[in-house]
Write a structure and sequence with these properties.
alpha+beta; 37 strands; 681 residues; 10-stranded antiparallel β-sheet; globular; 35% strand
Length: 681
């Protein structure tokens, strides 16, 4: 690792050519640019002392002047009567290694600008706004010192704004609705955005891509966005669990980073490491016990109503059924078996309640010690499951005992769940009572981190569903290995319209910019309880293993469907889940994407390409392959008549010899895809 800090006096902040000309005697301004002089930030105050910032790319405004500030419930706000009291600069260039991830090494190269804003009159309180400016994005946060009149910050709302300088198309899902993050993406003009969750992705008329999100959400409420006027988006913090304050913090403290990823290509958003870089380094030390893996599970059959989570004649988590899954995993090289519905509580009215769940007591037909031994004897591990129904208070009362049990049983990973309507999670209040909370409020952000750190003490990895949003904390806590947080594959199993063909091409450039997703791909049984079944071809299901990144990847379908179709199933067996390098070869938000990844610890490359409802013919250069080597391209492509409506199972499996410099045609059927394994010679 290299680390360089450049003295302020030696920095050449060559922003002047990129910044607009101001009238004589302008208000004081702070400005700085990225290392490559691509992005520049300027901070100023107006005549009323209202602070604002702006972002320019190659001299053109991306974010027009946008307000900064904070409103409190107990002391005067930081909104006007402010001046730039001081400014400081720094520069950092370091490279760090992920223990697992989309790529092994990440460069963290930025210039930092710290602006101190102070009240011009009155108590003269002050605070800092810290900007980290990268060539591909900007992160900024508020830093509050402990000072008279600000010993505690009861935050009513941020005044942070993001005003796009140009008209744009927006890809977004609604905020403050009942179904948490599990919505299909709207594609609208920016002026039609309402309350939106982050990440929100925007494309300006001239083709510039901007994604707004946040990083390092710790002891704070998640940020949403509300369009308040024209192209102006304002931060909207998730409500707290009581009172007018959305966040309560003792000073000193800092907020999460507010992030802007800025790119000419849509694929550059995916390749950006901005969110991870804005998080703190690994706090857990040696995390070699965190094992990325593929897994199968007692899960999809419940969504198809073939089995039940609750005990009874259709109970899924039986000794016999789990042993069958263990045998299948061992025979096909899978690392784990997820078992849902193993513990007492499912027979009660569990949705949004959770008080009946025991996280240590199994149903009588599930012998946890015996099954754990059986799995370990075959080189497989069980993956635990804790559905909480959003009752974090009840879960925390058993958390230590539950993780102690898993540690004794040799269970190294747990999938948690928080199935409850938004705003209906339950947390412990300071007085010991139980109150309702939002899934992304401060209380639940703290709860998830509490679960992750308690699990880490027992060397257990965590995969939450219905989670708090991903903000890159996997860098700091590498056992926070993946999560859901969007419409997953199960929506295509139920008796309602499932995910449309464009859904995954939306996720890549929106939700997945935040971090890994446990999407649960690999479905071969195309007819489900959903009216249209699975809106995809078989080849697209294979491509999802490369396109949608997760260090835990499920082979989600019924075992029978894999046993009947060994040809396409071979790709699921072969594809890794941990990567040395990742590149996006092409793509447009919501339309199509092609991603290649090189396996970690090996020489093979993997390609995944998928499209929306429209067929595509793409040409991809194989310049990503290592020079001087030959490869066998094992191709899994849509057949001539493949179509997500009529011929989903039409797949062709073939191979050809290729090398760096070759070009491959990719023919994608409507709702289709292509997966390729490049085997090095």
């Amino acid at each position: 690792m290299t680390f360089r800090t450049t003295p302020v006096a030696s920095l050449l902040w060559l922003c002047s050519a990129a910044l607009p000309t101001f009238a004589a005697s302008p208000p004081p301004m702070a400005q700085a640019c990225s290392p490559g002089n691509v992005l520049c930030v300027e901070v100023t105050t107006d005549n009323d002392g209202r602070p604002s910032y702006a972002v320019l790319r190659d001299g053109r405004p991306v974010i027009a002047p946008s307000r900064l500030g904070m409103m409190f419930t107990h002391v005067p706000k930081f909104e006007r009567n402010l001046e730039i009291a001081s400014q400081a600069r720094d520069s950092v260039d370091q490279t760090w290694e992920q223990p697992w991830g989309e790529r092994r090494e990440i460069r963290n190269h930025y210039n930092q600008l710290t602006v101190t804003l102070r009240e011009k009159t009155g108590p003269k309180r002050d605070f800092d706004v810290v900007f980290r400016i990268y060539d591909d994005g900007v992160g900024f946060r508020y830093d509050f010192r402990r000072q008279p009149g600000l010993e505690q910050a009861d935050i009513a709302e941020e005044l942070t704004e993001f005003t796009l300088a140009e008209d744009a198309t927006a890809w977004w899902i609604p905020a403050f609705e009942w179904n948490r993050e599990e919505y299909l993406y709207h594609t609208t003009p920016l002026q039609e955005v309402g309350d939106a969750q982050t990440p929100i992705t925007l494309r300006t008329k001239d083709g510039l891509h901007v994604s707004i999100h946040e990083a390092a959400l710790v002891d704070y409420s998640g940020m949403n966005l509300t369009r308040v006027d024209g192209r102006k988006l304002k931060a909207a913090l998730t409500p707290g669990s009581g009172g007018a304050a959305r966040v309560v913090r003792a000073t000193p403290f800092h907020t999460p980073w507010r992030t802007l990823q800025v790119a000419r290509r849509a694929g550059d958003l995916v390749e950006s490491s901005l969110i991870l870089n804005l998080n703190e380094p690994n706090a857990l030390g040696d995390v070699s016990w965190v094992k990325p893996m593929k897994y199968v599970g007692v899960w999809w059959e419940m969504h198809l109503d073939l089995k039940t989570w609750a005990a009874g004649p259709k109970h899924g988590a039986t000794n016999e059924n789990v042993r069958r899954h263990i045998d299948f995993a061992a025979a096909n090289g899978f690392g784990g078996v997820l078992v849902e519905g193993w513990n007492v509580g499912w027979n009660a009215d569990w949705f949004g309640n959770g008080e009946s769940f025991s996280f240590t007591q199994p149903y009588p037909d599930f012998d946890l010690p015996a099954l754990s031994r059986y799995a370990q004897d075959k080189g497989v591990v069980l993956i635990g499951h804790h559905e909480t129904s959003g009752n974090a208070a009840h879960y925390e009362s058993q958390l230590g005992d539950a993780f102690d049990l898993y540690q004794r049983m040799g269970i190294p990973a747990v999938k948690t769940g928080y199935v409850a309507d938004a705003g209906q999670a339950k947390v412990r209040a300071p007085d010991g009572g139980v109150v309702y909370a939002w899934h992304e409020g401060q209380d639940m952000a703290n709860h998830h981190l509490r679960v992750v750190t308690e699990a880490a003490k027992r060397h257990i990895a965590v995969n939450p569903h219905e989670p708090v949003k991903d903000t890159g904390l996997r860098r700091t806590y590498p056992n926070w290995i993946t999560r859901e947080g969007a419409r997953g594959m199960e929506f295509s199993a139920w008796g309602q319209p499932g995910n449309p063909p464009e859904h995954e091409a939306n996720l890549v450039f929106t939700r997945l910019l935040a971090g890994p997703m446990d999407y649960t791909p690999g479905i071969f049984g195309m007819h489900t309880r959903a009216p249209d079944g699975i809106a995809t071809t078989w080849a697209k299901q294979l491509a999802l293993y490369v396109v949608i990144y997760s260090p835990l990847q499920m082979a989600a379908d019924l075992l029978d469907n894999y046993e009947k179709n060994p040809g396409p199933f071979q790709f699921i067996k072969d594809v890794p889940v941990d990567w040395e390098e990742t590149r996006v070869l092409n793509g447009e938000v919501g339309d199509y994407v092609t991603i290649v990844r090189k396996e970690r610890g090996g020489e093979n490359w993997y390609l995944g390409s998928l499209t929306d409802e429209h067929p595509r013919e793409l040409q991809v250069s194989l310049d990503f392959l290592d020079p001087g080597r030959r490869y066998t391209a094992q191709v899994y492509r849509d057949g001539e008549h493949a179509d997500w409506k009529t011929r989903r199972e039409d797949i062709v499996i073939e191979q050809r010899e290729v090398s760096r410099g070759d070009t491959l045609p990719l023919r994608l059927a409507p709702g289709g895809g292509q997966a390729i394994r490049f085997v090095a010679h």
